């Protein structure tokens, strides 16, 4: 998921959550006997959501209920599309390696991820490493690497070691012209050391 989509997703989730929290809190407060706010659609805790008059107001109009059902179906489809987009698998299953004879070989994405992470962990001061491949197998595979660094490591040195070591080896072994990579560095939590 790109950064823009991630931001849009979080903002949308926040707004939906805020609206649901306000509406749910209002329903709960009115149901427990609090006075209804001036903007609330009902007057007291004994009001029903749809009265007989509201339910049967458009009974004679043949377009009303099909329109309501169609709008709700569109909202349901949009919600399902959004759920699938959020849960969709984003890992690259395989990388196409040019063998030079006109054919190609397929390299499993997990194998390349594992090799990349293992080589990154062997670098000095790297406690843990995790690698993910995304993008398209034929045109533009990309890597996302997370490194957990020990307290004594300079982040610039760790990044240089990663790019000249593990990433360079992964790029050349897969026969890729380039391997754009997003690297996230974080420090490992540790107990305070006693100085004497």
What does this structure look like?
Helix 5 (155-173) links the parallel strand 4 and strand 5. A three-stranded mixed beta sheet has the order 3-4-5. Strands 1-2 form a two-stranded antiparallel sheet. The chain contains five helices and five strands. The two termini are 49 Å apart. Helix 4 packs antiparallel against helix 5 (155-173). The longest helix has 29 residues, at 3-31. It is an alpha+beta fold. The model has no long low-confidence stretch (mean pLDDT 82). 46% of the residues lie in helices and 18% in strands.
Write down the secondary-structure element order. Answer: HHHEEHEEHE
| Annotation field: number of helices | 5
Shape estimate: elongated
Number of strands: 5
Low-confidence stretches: none
Helix/strand/pairing category: alpha+beta
- The share of residues in extended strands comes to 15-25%
What is the CA-atom radius of gyration, in angstroms?
Answer: 28 Å
Helix content: 40-55%
Distance between the termini: 49 Å
Main sheet overview:
3 strands, mixed
**Arithmetic mean of pLDDT:** 82
The strands making up the biggest β-sheet line up spatially as 3-4-5
């Amino acid at each position: 998921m790109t950064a823009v989509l991630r931001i849009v997703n979080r903002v949308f989730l926040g707004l939906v959550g805020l609206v649901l929290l306000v509406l749910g809190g209002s329903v709960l407060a009115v149901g427990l006997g609090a006075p209804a706010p001036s903007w609330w659609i009902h007057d007291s805790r004994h009001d029903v959501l749809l009265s007989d008059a509201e339910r049967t107001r458009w009974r004679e109009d043949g377009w009303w209920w099909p329109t309501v059902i169609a709008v709700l179906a569109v909202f349901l489809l949009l919600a399902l599309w959004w759920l699938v987009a959020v849960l969709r698998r984003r890992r690259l299953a395989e990388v196409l390696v040019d063998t030079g004879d006109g054919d190609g070989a397929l390299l499993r994405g997990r194998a390349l991820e594992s090799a990349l992470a293992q080589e990154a962990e062997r670098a000095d001061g790297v406690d843990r490493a995790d690698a993910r491949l995304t993008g398209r197998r034929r045109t533009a595979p990309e890597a996302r690497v997370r490194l957990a660094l020990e307290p004594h490591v300079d982040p610039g040195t760790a990044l240089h070691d990663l790019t000249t070591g593990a990433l360079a080896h992964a790029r050349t072994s897969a026969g890729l012209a380039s391997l754009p990579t997003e690297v996230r560095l974080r420090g490992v939590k540790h107990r305070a050391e006693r100085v004497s």
